[in-house]
Prior knowledge:
The protein is α+β, with helices and mostly antiparallel strands. About 35% of the residues lie in helices and about 20% in strands. The longest helix is centred in the N-terminal third of the chain and has 10 residues, at about 15-25. The protein is elongated and about 75 Å long.
Amino acid sequence: MTTTTMTSRQFNQDASGAKKAAERGPVIITDRGRPAHVLLGIQEYRRLIGAGRKIADLLAMPDAGDVEMDIPHSRENARPADLS
């Protein structure tokens, strides 16, 4: 992935070139020498925001088999709830 930096003037004069550069990686557009905007290709944008992932898929935790947990055994006895 290649990061390209261009001034806002360069961007205005060559938007097509900026779009081509965004296919290779992020394009940082500066304003008075300071980074002001980032142009990304749609695939990279979707990857960053997690587009296409469903909450059910995230909750399923497909890698949960790799998680180790040490859950201490409780010594308390269960009691009926007091609902009065």
